[in-house]
């Protein structure tokens, strides 16, 4: 919990910070924000990741100094592990022998850390880093603010998603006060893709269909589409949300071919429809309105199974809204 994290920072000196492979804006922004905070407190700190950082986040202050590593030795007193469901997610060998601090806002996180600070009410880990800064008596510098703002904007879909709370907006306001230019961050994230994104979008949207109820949309991306579009990682960001812009669509299923008979699926929903429960039933996880999983087998069959499971989630949410059934809030 937070008080343990504060105590640890006060008592130790050398810190490593890592996040999951193919990091998103919350992973990179929170890691760099924490790094700046630790340095401002006179600590030694560096961000270590496996693999590349997406282009959209490379303009963040400190991004140039991120270390790309495959393993860790005894360089640190403790390593912060940001936004990871388990210790394998960073893809870095040797983490299991370290003093680790698990910081996450996913309720489904395994408590793998030596210290675990999980706050599922936070819109992004970035919000937690801001809280940590306040709790430890740090100053919100421009660098910290820019990194944490990136985390908030990307994880809340520019403050559109249901995880956006009064606290999120209050923190965002403080960050703007500390020097963040929201339009500059939005340009870096949303208007900074290569043309291959548009090529890929054209092909993927060509596959979009609705189920027989007309309320669930599903779309697909093959390896061949990726290849012919010349796509790079991140080009498909947000594709799954596009069908939700239609009024009658309540949920979307977006499957990507990643190998022979292997697929990653993203699930999205509106309102009380819980797709995290659907993802969990297939071995994945996530949040109520945004979840993901990996499946193997026949594509048509797996897609039909997922769509049917999402339809049940839609019907369950409707039955609860109508007062026909009652379920515990975490089951909804
Ligand atoms: P996305 O659809 O963008 O890949 O993921 C949406 C959400 O679901 C994210 O919060 C992500 O952490 C979670 N998620 C995606 N794939 C998996 C998975 O395989 N396992 C777990 N536990 N969570 C996942
Ligand atoms: Mn996040």
Determine the number of helices (DSSP H or I, runs of at least 4 residues): 10
Bound heterogens, unique: guanosine-5'-monophosphate, manganese (II) ion
The CATH superfamily title of the largest domain: inorganic pyrophosphatase (n-terminal core)
- CATH 2nd-level architecture of the largest domain: Alpha-Beta Complex
Mean pLDDT: 95
CATH topology-level name of the largest domain: inorganic pyrophosphatase (n-terminal core)
Beta-strand content bin: 15-25%
Poorly predicted runs are: none
Helix content: 25-40%
Number of domains: 2
Briefly characterize the structure.
By secondary structure, this protein is α/β, with parallel strands linked by helices. It contains 10 helices and 12 strands.
Relevant terms:
36% helix; inorganic pyrophosphatase (n-terminal core); 10 helices; Diaminopimelate Epimerase, Chain A, domain 1; six-stranded mixed sheet; six-stranded parallel sheet; 332 residues; alpha/beta; binds manganese (II) ion; binds guanosine-5'-monophosphate; globular
Please provide a written account of the structure:
The chain has 332 residues and is an alpha/beta fold. Helices cover 36% and strands 19% of the residues. It folds into 2 domains: 189 residues, inorganic pyrophosphatase (n-terminal core); 128 residues, Diaminopimelate Epimerase, Chain A, domain 1 (Roll), CATH 3.10.310.30. The strands form 2 sheets. A 6-stranded parallel β-sheet has the order 3-2-1-4-5-6, with helices on one face. The structure holds guanosine-5'-monophosphate and manganese (II) ion. The site of manganese (II) ion (MN) has 6 residues, from loops.
